Amino acid sequence: ATEDGLNKYDGVRFTVYKNFPNDSTSIKNNYVRSLFEDSDGRFWIGCINGLHLYNRTTDNFMEIKLYNDTLPITPHITSIIESDNHEIWITTSGEGVIRIKPNDKTCHTDATLSSRLSSIHLTCVFQDSKGIFWIASENQGLNMYNPQTDEVFLFKTPHIGSDQISAICEDNSGNLFIGTLTNGLYKLNSQTQTFENVPYIGKTVLFVKSLLFDKTNNRLLVGTDGQGMKVFNEKKQCLEDIQISSTPFDLSRMKVHAICQDKSGNIWMGLFQKGVFLAPESPNNFDYWGFKSYSKNVIGSGCIMSLIKEANGILWIGTDNDGIYKMDNKGNTQHFSPSGHPNSVPNTVLSMIEDDAGNIWLGSYLKGLACLNKTTGYCTYYNSHIQLSDDHTARNKIFSLAKDKQNKLWIGTNGAGVYVFDLHEK
């Protein structure tokens, strides 16, 4: 759901649905606020001026007519849920609560309940495991409705940290959490029936926008408006920054306006003005280091041409036109960049190998064969030892290096054959 149409992803491609004024089967507005699939597989779409059901067979939409008493209305739909008795509960901004029972022929606002709430401008509704409905208002606090006793109770400041309620969620232990737009996350103390602030280790006030309980990993995820996503540490009873590696941007500054978990346990995040971000449940066995990673952009943007790893875990990375990078097993890097110095590393390192003495040998694109000083990054060139010329000929383009059991170095060139260099005689 976006401010510019509805998007459907089938695992391969996106399909975009938009409003067409002369097509009654298109969505009524491009500003889509809420989506929900009920237990019968019906897919509900809430726009800023009405409600739709998606027809999977015809791949189009049917508008659901809504009424306040007998007056037709086109309300701003803010959230949609299904209750434990299979009623569809809808919150609106300006028309209160709409309840649609399974056999209803027409759909009306619940005027009686709406009139008892703190406001008819609502943001979301949630039914907890005890059957209690929690109905959040835009700026008039949180309403608790007990359908068994027909009682309504209001939580407002100072009994809750903010009257601007943005999200409601429950964990697998029945703990209720409330997100506020101006004062962070709150947890309901079931014994005292009061909401207690959940501290954030960053010691700044969080602007909570969305909540999701991750059933696969038994954790509460908290999306904020400009402070990324946080996770609730149950043991410490506090919020912590969540670590997601290899992201192409700084996730800690993102506006996470929506969080969803699919049937495979993958977490999807709706990022305001950035699109959709997928955090797979099964992490990729490969991690990405490079210029497309915000947190691990430590090896420049040049192509990787060669790699070699020493027994002590040090990784040497030869690049195209950016010299050599040295990286330890914690990701700390040292860059040996090419320069005009005669002992500078080559611009482009096509091949690398380690000899029996632990020396690193480099095969370059234009500068021939070199032995690398692993501390200073200086290179000693051995072109004259193996009759390689100093001009930019095919013999100076070393594409491959290999070492045999006699500690002889075999040198493969691009167009000038193979050379053998006895390392004992260097």
TrEMBL record:
SUPFAM superfamilies the UniProt entry points to: Calcium-dependent phosphotriesterase
Q: Coiled-coil annotation: which residues? A: none
Gene3D superfamilies, per the entry:
YVTN repeat-like/Quinoprotein amine dehydrogenase
InterPro entries in the record: Reg_prop, WD40/YVTN_repeat-like_dom_sf
Q: What class of enzyme is it?
A: transferase
Ordered alphabetically, the record's keywords are: Kinase, Phosphoprotein, Transferase
* One example GO MF annotation: phosphorelay sensor kinase activity
Give the EC number(s) under which this enzyme is classified: 2.7.13.3
Name recorded for this polypeptide: Sensor histidine kinase TodS
User: Native species of this protein?
Assistant: termite gut metagenome
